[in-house]
């Protein structure tokens, strides 16, 4: 029996075998990583939570913008529809309220402990920083009140 020469193409070289093994290892590593990611429920929950937080923040910003627009429109309507004598009386009442509040504030400041006063100053600073939304909300409340009152008069 004589040996026939082996087919060179069917027998891989050691280098080709190493490349195949390395390629298979890479594929296996990727598969293991994918399976581990699917099995990591905690990571998936964190990812979903982050996604939902982002969606909620976007929705809140959208709703806030819509509210600002509607409030500005309502305030403009109130200003346009309210007679001048009513606006004057409202301005006078507001001035009286401010004066009374200032007097009450001075009396309270004299009798209030320092720690409570500091916390109140912090709250006042925050309110001053957010004046526009506060005024818009007040204007919206006035509009609702006027519309309800108007509806009751028609009955």
Feature tags:
155 residues, mainly alpha, 0% strand, elongated
Tally of DSSP helical segments: 5
Q: Strand portion, in percent?
A: under 5%
Unreliable stretches (pLDDT < 50, length at least 5) are none
The rough form would be described as elongated
Main beta-sheet strand count, sense and barrel state: none
Order of H and E elements? HHHHH
Which whole number gives the mean pLDDT? 82
β-strand number? 0
Structural class call reads: mainly alpha
Transmembrane segments: 132-148
Pfam families: DUF3618 (PF12277)
Protein name: DUF3618 domain-containing protein
Keywords: Membrane, Transmembrane, Transmembrane helix
Describe the structure.
The protein is mainly alpha-helical. The protein has a domain at 16-81 and 128-154. Helices cover 87% and strands 0% of the residues. It has helices spanning 14-39, 41-81, 84-111, 114-129, 131-154. It is elongated, with a radius of gyration of 37 Å. The N and C termini lie far apart (119 Å).
Quick take:
It is built from five helices and no strands. By secondary structure, the protein is mostly helical.
Helices and strands, with pairings:
Layout: H1 14-39, H2 41-81, H3 84-111, H4 114-129, H5 131-154
Helix pairs in contact: 2-5
Pfam families: DUF3618 (PF12277)
Protein name: DUF3618 domain-containing protein
Region (Disordered): 1-25
